[in-house]
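retry 2 of 3: previous attempt timed out while embedding protoporphyrin IX containing FE. Reduced batch size to 1 and resubmitted. Inputs unchanged:
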Amino acid sequence: MDTLARSETPAAPPPDVPARIQRPLRIMFEYAEAALDRVFGPAWNPLYFLGPLGFYYYWIVAVSGIYVYIFFDTGTTEAYQSVEYMTYQQWYLGGVMRSLHRYASDGMVLMMVVHIAREFAMGRYRGPRWFTWITGVPIFWLVIASGITGYWLVWDTLAQYIAIATTEWFDWLGIFGEPIARNFLTPEDLDDRFFTLLLFMHIAVPLILLFVLWIHLQRISRPRFNPNRGLAVGTFVMLLALAFVHPAESQEPANLSVVPGTLDIDWYYLAIYPFMDATSYGAGWGFAVAASLMLFVLPWLPPLKQPAAAAVDLSNCNGCTRCAEDCPYNAITMMPRSDGLPFDHEAQVDPDLCVRCGICAGACPTATPFRRASDLIPGIDLPQRPLRALRDDLARRTAKLDGPARIVVFGCDHGVRVADIEGPGIAAFSLPCIAALPPSFIDYVLSRDLADGVVLTGCREGECYNRFGVMWTKMRLAGERDPYLRKRVPRERLLTYWGGTLDRRGLSNAVAAFAARIAALPRFDPLRPGASARANARPDAAAPSETVD
Amino acid sequence: MTRAVAYIGQVIVYAAIAALLGGFATWPRHTHFPDDQALIKLSFAHSAKHKVACRKRTAKELSKLAPNMRRTLSCSRERVPVYLELDFDGAPLFRGTFAPSGLSRDGPAQVYERFVVPVGRRHVVVRMRDSTRSEGFDYEAQATLDLPPRRNLVIGFRPEMGGFFFK
Ligand code: HEM
Ligand code: SF4
Ligand code: SF4
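retry 2 succeeded.
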């Protein structure tokens, strides 16, 4: 059923255990995103910037860490005293820096946990995305290890607790000739050199973390490292306010003759210790290993069955680089021409990196439905969901449309299931991503009178399953990015609607209202395209974006 | 939603994140160790006696060895395990054997044991056997100690300091 390929709605995920957790989690995220969209707007919504916020917190930790380092002394008594000095004598700067250091570190963990949950909920961890997921697992432990060594340096009772529990925890493995916990038996056993080693680790581990973060983003094209200004300012002001309202403080100075009793615990970094108090060191290892293993195998539970990767048809590729520019996962490389055609380059797809989003086909200048039937072979396309099939499908299904306003809806497999809003006057077509639709298809539908109006819908405006689907689409429609939607296309016959998968009612209402507007327009004459546009000109009609309410 | 309402909403969301960060950075408190108990850590490294005592080689035996290997004492390197007993207020708290470390079983035995005990004035006895004898002990020490809440009492061992010590 080749011709149906583009319009069929994605099959429900198999009822495996990950999917059973994934679905409710995704619904929760979508509600939260919708709520925060209303408060922050899609451009500032923190849920769309979790990774960049993680980096932002990292830099705050790094800068405040350098300041704290300047005043920090290593040594069994000096360490505590130097931190006390910063916290109280120099509260206005050293104390604030210490608080920023602590709370931005906590922010990194909070962001990271939500980031993991969200990528999991959205299903962005399988197929070629496994790499980004798997490199995230060591990141998690490196972040935690950075925090543990940090709390250890202060050498208060909390540090004492961590020192003994951590060394005993590692001794449990029996890999050291002599129990390392013996370094913390009595005050006389303490060694300043241990603190120097610790300080070294507290600096080295975050640097390794930064390196692994760089690897984390190797398969992501144009990764966003920074949140936008609004979020950055808001987050910083929030941390600063917290630093004044609830400054970070030490607990009693460490005293190895007395066992730490009741402690204030930073649960973001230290939760494993109370867990091991309640269970055992063995259980601590069991949990750490099981959790890591589970995260490691998750991308293959079960393995993603994928259609073929995007394929290049050299005879139709002129080497324009648009597909490589638009690919969100660095899957396309421009190579020297190999077939003797008079162009410098040709596109080449790495199937291991390709997520089958089809955005490349949507970008290709040769992917235009105006070409003759036999010819609609773009330079690049998804072999199992070719654009030719979409055009054939369009012709076949729009022929049956009926009513005062015939509407074609182009949707995306990761947004609302557009098949659900079909009706006698509405034909819906789902693509792997809305940016897989070459803008010329919109022109084609209207100018060939296949329908009276076109609706584009996809993921939520702020963040797209395929990262750039919504953004590229908006820019193409606005004439800011190749391939443009031609000027002659009457914008009042085009509606874009960005919503989550739960937004069916919103989409359905928006389409109904749109259809009513279209029905009131004079019939569109593609030969004199200005006619209806002039009669019904709306100043804001260019690329309207319905807000989701 | 008006701009003002949206900004108020943002402040509320940031306040919620700040509360999450500030809150779980110190709360809820965790009781690692209760006030009505103390901790005894029995910990040291100790090389026990060799399993077989060293023996003088006969001249005949020596002549059979390569010249650079001619040591008069023949020692098997393996050590006996260390046997330990700990009594607390007259009742046995611990009995255990610690094997020597190393592939040839010639290294020190590593002891690191924790005992949670009630606080108060207590009598502690610790005994060690580190030789081939089958009865009796090579070292013994006892003390009556005040154990205040959460006291971390270390029982160590250094033969050059006369054996066990309490710290
Ligand atoms: C401090 C820790 C982390 C930081 C700063 C971070 C940062 C980022 C950034 C900036 C992106 C790219 C977002 C974009 O531009 O679209 C990203 C993507 C991703 N992250 Fe992380 N990350 C962290 C930890 C983790 C962890 C622990 C995991 C999972 C175990 C993870 C899984 C992923 C996945 C699966 C994606 C890819 C999403 C896609 O394919 O589009 N990350 N991360
Ligand atoms: S289908 Fe998507 S991921 Fe694959 S090459 Fe095309 S744009 Fe890149
Ligand atoms: S967009 Fe099309 S023509 Fe341009 S390089 Fe890619 S495949 Fe070739």
